[in-house]
Design goal:
Oligomer: single chain
Shape: globular
Order of helices and strands: HHEEEEHEEEEH
Number of domains: 1
Helix content: 10-25%
Length: 254
């Protein structure tokens, strides 16, 4: 499964520290975590976006007037976890995992800035049928950004299309799919395992709506020793992400 991207930060509980908010995912490279397959999702693109924006202004003489941000009605939320709708996962047979004493589940972060507001949330799930001894878990990572100074549209497609030319760790492949019915544009990135093992799914959904960007990632692992637990298929995981994203985006506009 995917490894760390250039400039990427570690993933949340179970694999590393909480991920800070961002607007764009950076395509991952090699390396991995549990069972030799890491679940790292990268963030980045702000510098690139700013450079392209500045270049456009030089070419068009746009420094005379700043373009107004189209935030599409979205607002900053201090707690993205509380402002998200994860009922689709619970309806699919997953429950919030009980954290260790020194951990939190779910866990959120966020910051406001004149140029960019960022929010993030991580939540760990367990399959309902998993015992306490089963090493089976699902991590759901979300991030949302309000781009107030730079239009993310020119780079948004490129960030996700870049996955098509990359190989995941271990010879796995990234499969990209355009998604309709959510935001102005959206992309679904799925990892197709070379060995064909049915031990989990890694799926990313990225959405842009005006100058607002949102990403939600599903990372599941079911150990071979688990009994009574079956991994969700990548297609099913993608459906769950889309259902959750649509409901969450509606809440973020209130």
């Amino acid at each position: 499964m995917p490894g760390a991207a250039p400039g990427a930060v570690p993933p949340p509980a179970g694999f590393g520290a909480v991920t800070p908010p961002s607007g764009f995912p950076a395509p991952p490279g090699g390396g991995g975590g549990g069972k030799g397959k890491g679940w790292l999702w990268g963030v980045g693109g702000a510098v690139l976006a700013s450079a392209v924006w500045a270049g456009t202004l030089f070419a068009t003489g746009g420094f005379d007037g700043e373009e107004k941000a189209d935030l599409a009605g979205y607002r900053y939320k201090e707690d993205l976890c509380a402002s998200s709708d994860f009922s689709a996962f619970e309806g699919a047979g997953f429950r919030e995992d009980t954290p260790d004493e020194d951990e939190k589940n779910p866990e959120h972060d966020g910051s406001e800035h004149a140029a960019l507001d960022g929010m993030s949330c991580e939540i760990e799930y367990k399959p309902t049928g998993a015992s306490s001894d089963d090493y089976s878990s699902v991590s759901v990572y979300t991030s949302a950004s309000l781009h107030k100074k730079t239009d993310p549209a020119p780079e948004f497609e490129a960030q996700y299309k870049a996955y098509e030319s990359l190989d995941a760790s271990g010879g796995d492949k990234y499969v990209l799919k355009d998604v309709s019915g959510v935001g102005d544009e959206a992309y679904l990135v799925t990892v197709k395992e070379k060995d064909g093992e049915d031990d989990g799914a890694y799926v990313i959904l990225g959405v842009r709506d005006g100058w607002f960007t949102y990403q939600i990632t599903w990372s599941e692992y079911v150990s071979s020793s688990s009994t009574g637990v079956t991994a969700v298929s990548p297609d099913k995981a993608g459906e769950l992400l889309q259902t959750s994203a649509k409901a969450t985006l509606a809440k973020l506009q209130k």
